[in-house]
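In line with agreed milestones, work has continued on tokenised descriptions of protein folds. One protein thus recorded appears below exactly as we store it:

>
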Amino acid sequence: MLILGHAVMVAGALVSAVTNELLVMITGRTLQGFAMSAIPLGISLARDIVPREELGSAMALISSSMGVGGGCLYVFRQARRGVLGS
């Protein structure tokens, strides 16, 4: 289930990155939103797997990966616009 959720998120990110249409962009962002349930699941898995003294760092890494991934989308989209001129 976790892998399927991430596959849907990646598909949504790709759809959002390659479109110039607002409705398609909203659809892509909606697909990305379906994977938001993976964050609490990942944190709960980390709590069971990661040693207690490293748990805070693991939770921070999981949470910050959302922001980094979202920021990369905008960079790639602007790079695409610069290369393809669209």
User: Anything to note?
Assistant: The first helix runs from residue 2 to 18. The chain has a mean pLDDT of 83. The chain has four helices and no strands. The helical segments are 2-18, 22-34, 38-49, 55-84.
